[in-house]
Design a protein that fits this description.
By secondary structure, the chain is mainly α. The chain has one domain. 67% of the residues lie in helices and 0% in strands. The chain is built from six helices and no strands. The chain starts with a helix and ends with a helix. 34% of the residues are buried.
């Protein structure tokens, strides 16, 4: 791969892919396993529907949540797919907020993985 934009896009789309493309298989596997584990745990914890409010209720918190979730690439689509038909008792789960924070943290971790993959490509990091 000779294009940092493509590496960055693929790293965003599938966590760990940017490292796999550059031959950093162990690092890519660790990042992929960590991020996908967090996404799956979050979805099963009811976190796909977090926050349980809309844009009008708290614009800044809603935008921060949206930005963090968007970092998951395919995981973003998966979480939105699960949140389309939310369980009416999802917010009553004791793990609801933890799941929401897991999915946000997974997205933010993937942003760091994207930056790391691009830094490796540009030769700033080994």
């Amino acid at each position: 791969m000779n294009n940092p934009v493509v590496i960055g896009f693929l790293a965003w789309l599938f966590p760990g892919a940017g490292h796999f493309l550059q031959g950093k298989h162990v690092r890519g596997l660790i990042l992929s396993a960590a991020i996908w584990s967090m996404i799956i745990i979050a979805i099963f914890s009811g976190g796909a529907y977090f926050p349980g409010f809309g844009f009008d209720d708290g614009q800044l918190l809603y935008m921060l949540n949206l930005f963090a979730k968007a970092g998951n690439g395919l995981g973003t689509g998966l979480s939105y797919l699960f949140s389309m038909e939310p369980d009416p008792k999802a917010a009553a789960l004791s793990t609801f907020e933890y799941g929401g924070k897991f999915i946000e943290t997974a997205g933010l971790l993937n942003y760091l993985a994207i930056i790391d993959a691009i830094d490796i490509y540009l030769g700033r990091k080994k």
